[in-house]
Amino acid sequence: MDISWDNISSENFEKLCFKILEENKFDNLQWFGKSGGDKGRDIIGYKREEPLPGLTKVNKWVIQCKRYKSKLLSKTEINNILVDAEEHNPDNILIILSNTISANTKDWIDEKRKKTKYDIHIWEELDLEREIMKHRRKLEEQFPNIINKKEILFYEIRDSKRNFFGCNEFDDIEIRVTDSQSNEEALKRVKEFIEYLKENEIIWD
Questions:
Q1: Which DSSP state fits 80?
Q2: Average pLDDT for 175-193
Q3: Sign of the CA dihedral 6, 12, 16, 18?
Q4: What's the rounded Cα separation, in Å, for the pair 45 and 23?
Q5: pLDDT range class, residue 193, cuts 50, 70, 90
Q6: pTM for this predicted structure
Q7: Own/partner pairs for 197-200, CB < 8 Å, 24+ apart?
Q8: SS3 category, 76
């Protein structure tokens, strides 16, 4: 699967980021996108952390969401975001991007971090894709067209005693169904098994 940024508007991109933050246990989230003039904040949220047992700290996060297809966010643009966000007295500033930033800009951010009272965080495309895939079942309900899905073909492998099914994406992996009376029943069992894997966490022992 891959992500299609063309299928999501700037407004829905902010809503997508809001939902991802919600799934990551941010509290009291506020979205300012619709009102316009966000003053360095698309979203504000709070996250409870426990640095030591019995010691709880609530940090304020100011979040900016930038859906760019090809343009890279410049140092000047990032600096403007930080300056505007400082007005809200954050503990953390998070910039979420649909693409990436240059190596020089990353070096500049590292130097900038040494001079600020708040922490600076950047979620680039790969970080965002990881979060989308992690929470994809819930996100697909609200953003059904954002994930481009591949067609995966399962095909029957003839055997006189057992039912085997291969997959066009993995030549070296087969699914064997035991105790099935017919190909239709075996195929049903394979579908149920795949749905079970999708709905549950897999733990490798």
A1: H
A2: 78
A3: positive
A4: 12
A5: confident
A6: 0.71
A7: 198/137, 199/137
A8: helix
Crossing angle of helices 103-113/75-86, nearest 10°? 30
Beta partners for 62?
Answer: 44, 93
Per-residue pLDDT reduced to its tens digit, 104-124: 999 999 999 999 999 999 999
Helix H segments across the chain? 10-23, 75-86, 103-113, 125-134, 136-142, 183-199
Distance CA 58, CA 118 (A): 14
Give the DSSP per-residue string, 127-140: HHHHHHHHTHHHHH
Scan for tokens 């246990």, then name that residue: 25
Distance of CA 128 to the CA centre of its chain: 4
85: tokens are 């966000």
Q: Residues 176, 163: contact at Cβ < 8 Å? A: yes
Q: To the nearest whole number, what is the mean pLDDT of the chain?
A: 83
In whole angstroms, how far apart are CA 159 and each of 62, 156, 162, 165, 166? 60, 9, 6, 10, 12
- pLDDT reported for residue 44: 95
What is the C-alpha separation between 45 and 90, in angstroms, rounded? 10
Is the CB of residue 43 less than 8 Å from the CB of residue 63?
A: yes
Q: Which one, of 62, 96, 100, lies nearest residue 82 by Cα?
A: 62
**Entry field: residues in the chain:** 205
